[in-house]
Amino acid sequence: MARVLSLFTPSGRPTLGNLLGALRPSALRLTADAARTDHVYGISDLHALTSPHDPALLNERALELAGLAVAAGIDPERCVFFRQSAVPAHTELSYLLESTAHYGEMQRMIQFKEKSARHEVVRLSLLTYPALMAADILLYQATDVPVGADQSQHLELARDLAERFNRAYEPVFTPPRAVLPKAAARVMDLADPSRKMSKSMDSPGTIYLLDPVDVVRRKVMRAVTDSGSDVTYDPEGKPGVSNLLAILSACTDTPVESLSYSSYGELKRATADAVIALLQPLQERYAAIAADRSGLEKTLREGAEQARDLAAPTLAAARRAIGLTAA
Ligand code: TYM
């Protein structure tokens, strides 16, 4: 049985990269014929504690991201949708997995190296983060995990930990696989296409999901392009143009090969139109969802109950297998 799972971290304002890399591909997996428990989506608020954060804002950010996820099509009627911190099994399994993982493999994670270099004081949870992420996935026996390319290494680690645990103790976990979107696995910063569009870096090249449409248009029209004038998809030689083509392709569900433009200006206008066509209705849906805050909180509470039920048998099996057999 396939089970699709993905979580989203409320560590900053969500971006177009989050939408095209993971939120939208996750939403598109929600077909009418699937059982609700075939899809598990959530807000990984515990992951937001790995870098300096404002406690007063944590809940607001989590609710904002949950509302945006629903607005992007993560329909809570069709999936289990919950907040990670409301399901204690995540932290409990994370500890069992930390006792399966090695210090060296955590240190080798690219995201750890990049993020730890940015902070003077590095929280220990930043190092152990991939064990919690593995717990998020393995608790639900997820098979498919739609994510952006920046999470591939964490997914490989989750797979390694599942296999190592199964070998060392008993076969408890399903090794998961990452599912990357075709076009927008790595949306780049519009002002500097050599780096990933990121919610943790304030850049004029980041499109936030709640940017007003005129701001979105301005950011796209000012995107850095490349020398020459041919509109061709060549991420090495033409990173700026290729990024715009990838964004346009993902927004319109059109293969990159089928896109043809005669000038950079024309490409930019088409990309701005396509991004706005996606964001405008999303923002309208979000406004309606945000206006009913208690409704959203109730949805998350109900989702957490379902998630707790789904997670319980796997946590119990993992405890038994590792030797925690006392009641
Ligand atoms: P997060 O919150 O940083 O990002 C959410 C999702 O968006 C993707 N993404 C991108 N995709 C394409 N281009 C970009 N520029 C871009 N930026 C972000 C991310 O790859 C991610 O899929 N650790 C995860 C959240 C998480 C998780 C999990 C994911 C926690 N537990 C279990 C899957 C399964 C994170 O911080 O993603």
SSE inventory with pairings:
Elements: E1 4-8, H1 16-28, E2 39-43, H2 55-71, E3 80-83, H3 89-98, H4 103-107, H5 110-118, H6 124-138, E4 144-146, H7 152-168, E5 177-179, H8 213-221, H9 239-252, H10 264-291, H11 293-322
Parallel strand pairs: 1-2, 2-3, 4-5
Protein name: Tryptophan--tRNA ligase
EC number: 6.1.1.2
GO molecular function, one term: ligase activity
Question: How would you describe this structure to a colleague?
Answer:
The protein is mainly alpha-helical. Helices cover 51% and strands 6% of the residues. The chain has helices spanning 16-28, 55-71, 89-98, 103-107, 110-118, 124-138, 152-168, 213-221, 239-252, 264-291, 293-322; strands spanning 4-8, 39-43, 80-83, 144-146, 177-179. The strands form 2 sheets. Strands 1-2-3 form a 3-stranded parallel beta sheet. α1 links the parallel β1 and β2 (39-43). The longest helix is centred in the C-terminal third of the chain and has 30 residues, at 293-322. It binds tryptophanyl-5'AMP. Tryptophanyl-5'AMP is lined by residues 5-9, 17-18, 21-22, 44, 47, 133, 136-137, 145, 147-148, 150-151, 184-187, 196-197. Keywords: Aminoacyl-tRNA synthetase, ATP-binding, Ligase, Nucleotide-binding, Protein biosynthesis. Its EC number is 6.1.1.2. Belongs to the class-I aminoacyl-tRNA synthetase family. It is an enzyme of class 6 (ligase). This is Tryptophan--tRNA ligase.
